[in-house]
Specification:
Elements: E1 8-11, E2 23-24, E3 30-31, H1 37-47, E4 52-55, H2 61-69, E5 74-76, H3 82-93, E6 100-103, H4 110-113, E7 118-121, H5 127-130, E8 135-136, H6 145-156, H7 160-172
Helix pairs in contact: 1-6, 1-7
Length: about 180
């Protein structure tokens, strides 16, 4: 499979960045656990000037806070029609669906997964999702699958070393180092 030149990575959150579980405290507050490994995927893309976008069906403050911390500018929550949202985003960014990668894990991701240039899902996605993606990945949601997806793409397109070489400059340019 010849890989497309990806200019935008879109990700779902629940079931991808998290294990899909929801923890409710006795006060009704919902909690989500994010693994920090996925933030490295965002950084690798940033070093290559490839934006990351979040399109998720849920709407929570935790996702906004995580995106803000990682400086992800394109965050869309409470989205029922992920295709329409993605089409508007790619039009605004001047890229095409063919130049877009998306990782999702469930029913509400399937339409977008079938349209993008490169699609992936975590190991614990349902079989009907695995059947329609380009890359069913061997990593479970919540265990760093977004990072794995990014690194696999960059490695297979020969750009991982470029991103890694730039990461040294990124960390040495930061204040407080």
């Amino acid at each position: 499979m010849k890989l497309p030149d990806i200019k935008l990575f879109i990700t779902d959150i629940d079931g991808v960045w998290t294990d899909g579980g929801m923890i409710y405290g006795s006060n009704g507050v919902e909690l989500k656990k994010f693994i920090t490994a996925d933030s490295a995927g965002v950084l690798l893309l940033k070093l290559l000037h490839i934006p990351t976008a979040i399109i998720t069906g849920e709407e929570t403050r935790m996702v906004s806070d995580r995106a803000e911390k990682l400086q992800i500018r394109h965050v869309f929550q409470g989205i029922r029609n992920k295709v329409a949202c993605a089409e508007k985003l790619i039009q605004n960014l001047g890229v095409s669906l063919e130049e877009t990668a998306f990782i999702g894990d469930d029913l509400n991701d399937m339409n977008l997964l079938s349209l993008v240039g490169l699609s992936a899902c975590p190991e614990n996605a349902p079989d009907y999702v695995k059947r329609i993606v380009d890359w069913p990945l061997p990593v479970r949601g919540g265990d760093g699958v977004f990072r794995f997806f990014v690194e696999k793409y960059l490695n297979e397109t020969g750009r991982l070393e470029e991103a890694l070489s730039r990461s040294g400059n990124f960390f040495s340019d930061q204040e407080g180092v």
